[in-house]
Design a protein that fits this description.
By secondary structure, this protein is an alpha/beta fold. The chain contains 10 helices and 7 strands. Strand 1, helix 1 and strand 2 form a beta-alpha-beta unit.
Length: about 260
């Protein structure tokens, strides 16, 4: 491929965070970084890369996208990698039997741009090359993204997926001014850290109240509950309200019920 890069032209940078969960090869990280910079994306976050970080093979494969690799941040879990984000999309190649919206890359890009223009912080989760994301990681997402390709040969590598999502994002901003001047709402969208804290509060009280009639089903029920809350698109104020509701109900359950008659 011919390189038509021009370092003298203004560079487009920023955009949604790209979170690679357990990427296997340094080369895959490097080619993903190259795809990111093609589309003006520079926020790369790595969760437990198999071959460690930094990785010289990533730099060799990035073909000049060094700034993306140099700014990359390392996280121990996907939850920590998305903690400061307000909207997250997770890529998946198959139906996981979970109740979540599944979007095409183009539809997801439109939603991401709308959230971005409203002052939100957006991210896209990509899973390990061989297995994809774990179900527990998918509960961090507001929606899933599936690339519609030839059903008889739907094999895409990591960099291809990053490029497809990045390209669709880039196209939504082609006619928009580069700066964001919209005011934040009074109560902005909740961060993922705030949502995970709410989930853990709720699950702790459900444990205390012996809610789980079948302990073996607890993990799947927890995922379903978390997905239900994710679909609401809660604000920070709404998260605080739910904390108050949970605390109130938990306290009431510990008091003796009022006498009858």
């Amino acid at each position: 491929m011919i390189d038509i890069s021009d370092p003298n032209r203004p560079s487009i940078e920023g955009g949604p965070a790209v979170i690679l969960v357990e990427p296997q090869l340094g080369e895959n990280i490097g080619t993903a970084a190259r795809a990111m910079l093609n589309c003006g994306l520079t926020d790369l976050r790595l969760v437990r890369p198999r071959d460690g970080w930094p990785n010289s093979r990533a730099a060799a494969a990035a073909s000049g996208a060094d700034k993306v690799l140099e700014q990359a941040r390392l996280y121990p879990t996907a939850a920590e990698a998305v903690a400061d984000l307000t909207r997250v999309y997770a890529t998946t190649a198959r139906n996981r039997g979970m109740t979540q919206a599944i979007l095409t890359p183009r539809a997801a890009a439109v939603e991401m741009r709308a959230a971005w223009n409203e002052g939100g912080k957006v991210g896209i989760l990509f899973g390990p090359e061989r297995t994809g994301l774990f179900n527990d990681d998918l509960t961090l997402a507001d929606a899933l993204v599936s690339v519609p390709v030839n059903p008889s040969f739907a094999s895409l590598n990591l960099a291809q997926c990053v490029l497809i999502l990045g390209y669709e994002w880039f196209q939504t901003g082609a006619d928009l001014p580069p700066d964001r001047h919209l005011a934040m709402p009074q109560s902005g969208p909740a961060t993922k850290a705030a949502l995970v804290n709410l989930f853990e509060h709720l699950e702790q009280e459900l444990d205390a109240g012996n809610f789980w009639s079948n302990p073996e089903k607890r993990p799947s029920m927890v995922r379903n509950i978390r997905n239900a809350f994710e679909r609401m698109g809660l604000t920070e104020q709404e998260v605080r309200t739910f904390h108050g509701i949970i605390a109130c109900l938990a306290g009431r359950s510990k008091r003796r019920p009022p006498s009858q008659g």
